[in-house]
Predict the structure.
Amino acid sequence: MKNKTALITGGASGIGKRTAMTLAELGIQLVINYRKSESEAIALADQLTDCYGTKNMAIRGDVADQQDCRRVVDEALAHFESIDILIHNAGPYIHERKKLTDYSFEEWNYIMQGNLHSVFYLTKLIIPSMRRQKWGRIITLGFDRVETSPGWMYRSAFAAAKTGLASLTRTIAMEEAENGITANMVSPGDIVNEWKEKSIQDAISESRLPSREGTGEDIARTIAFLIDEKSDFITGSIIPVTGGIDVLGKVFKK
């Protein structure tokens, strides 16, 4: 049986990097997409090849750009037989607290394109080959309670894009079930930057509270479960990985 190949957008750092490491351990070949972090992406691909003997590569591209999406997929398919798994980790986010009317048109459009339109671009390009082989896994990332369409003050563009993405993910699951393709969303909790590349054991070792920090490995392990051969009955699901914390409620109190 051929090795599976996964395309991870925004895979050079953070949760994307930790997910790449987890999948490489499973023998999955990786296309690590990056926008600016060229040296980090190439170093990660080389590291994983050296550690696990799998074939991995880094490809630059801004997934908010339709033509870049096409080029990334074309380059990947020039090196690999297929893209079996799409993990859409990349997603622009503005940390500054802004009300809707304070967003520029450019900011709004870029957040929508990077978080929502990009998934349309990539799945449109990749799903046909998944259909031919009657197998595929698509994973998107959301936020806590995204499936309820919650309001999120100062994050209107991001929340709107991810809420739309939740619906799109479920629609893909319904449309492609007959083709052996699953689509699920994983909604991370409040995982701070310094913990996005760390392991669960790191969090357990350093915890001084009743509940530990969330880590990138928590998300990566969930993704690894969803892409497993025997997880084919799980599709159209939105799975929170939050440690039982009301993430939006915590944000609103700040």
Remarks:
- The chain is about 45% helix and 15% strand.
